[in-house]
Amino acid sequence: MKQVVFNALQTSLSGGIGRYSYELAKNIYELNKIDLKIVIREEDKNLFNFARREDLIIAKEIKNSKNRNYYEQFKLPEIINELYPKAVIHYPDSMAPLFAKNKVVITVHDLAFKSLNHAFTLKTTLWKNVMTDLSVKKADKIIAITNFAKDEILKYYDVEPSKINVVYNGFNNFSRDSIILKNISSSIFKFSDKPYILTVSTISPRKNIDGLIRAFNLIKDKVNFNLVVAGKNGWLYDDIFKLVKNLKLENRVIFTGGVNDDELKFLYQNANIFVYPSFYEGFGLPPLEAMSYGIPCIVSNAASLLEVVGDAALKINPYEIEEICKGIVEVSSDLELKNNMVRKGFKRIKSFSWESCADRIVNLY
Predict the structure, then answer these.
(1) What is the pLDDT of residues 6-34, one digit of tens each?
(2) Other Cβ atoms within 10 Å of 127 Cβ, number
(3) Which pTM does this prediction carry?
(4) What are the pLDDT digits (tens) for 299-315?
(5) Opening angle at CA 358, ends 356 and 361, nearest 5
(6) Using CA atoms in the order 344, 346, 352, 356, what is the torsion angle rounded to 10 degrees?
(7) Pairing of strands 196-200, 273-276
(8) In the chain, where does DSSP find H-type helix?
(9) What is the dihedral of CA 156, 158, 163, 169, to 10 degrees?
């Protein structure tokens, strides 16, 4: 049976790559088609209780990304080569184990640090450029999560196209799950009495939260909604808070901070419109999650999002504030349009599942 070691050290269910790592590891393991070993942090043992203890490689003292990067590059390749010399190693991010002696598969989610480098710190841009360049050369196979992501790799790197395989992400249909109400903070309960527009993302420049807030400010008297921004604070988040204060929108724009799974389900369940105005995405899971709850979605016309949502969402130019305004007003006032979008959304989500994603990747191994 083929043996694979999957690096799930980056697991964090509130982040895109972390969610990808967890769901892929879990679904590949449960397919039971290969001998899978999963590398996890000691703190994440309960999350991986679906796996037998002997199939877990548990890393201790991984407290931050610096610890993790060091372990992934220098310690883990040695451990894997000693215990499983014939195994394939899968690092589900664009950073490969550069000194590994085993065959290596990586997943490239996006190359935003090249196409949208002003949205990152200089340190992050330099680090990602160096490591991704080396990783693309090191990898024996590269998984791109969309055709757009594959095109980006070919645009920036001298790679044989046959080395890259496109495998779409799955998505989490939270709408099927029950919600544990005791896990929801009182602040989220409190504001959910009023209709709201929802966006879910880390607060950082490439997510275009400021554009959404500026658009909301222009239509705040035309729509009976608040705006809820669910996600952790990222780079330059202070500028977003200052913008809300300067526009005197403190009572209309609500920041939840990071949320747990039950809070996220609750937010989706009670939202009226979902808006995702990101400048750049490798895939974009939140619109699919919103569609599963029957929420009409407005997304930017970024290439990957067009590929993922198909005709099930209203598209806007994220650089045009007036387009964002027009989209929100149109969806909020046109019941026929809204119902049509909801119907198409339910159909669209059937195209994506973690089980299918896992099966295709097992075949790639």
Answers:
(1) 999 987 655 678 889 999 999 999 999 99
(2) 15
(3) 0.86
(4) 999 878 999 999 999 99
(5) 110
(6) -130
(7) parallel
(8) 16-31, 65-70, 76-83, 112-115, 122-138, 147-156, 186-191, 209-219, 237-246, 261-270, 286-292, 303-309, 321-333, 335-348, 354-364
(9) 0
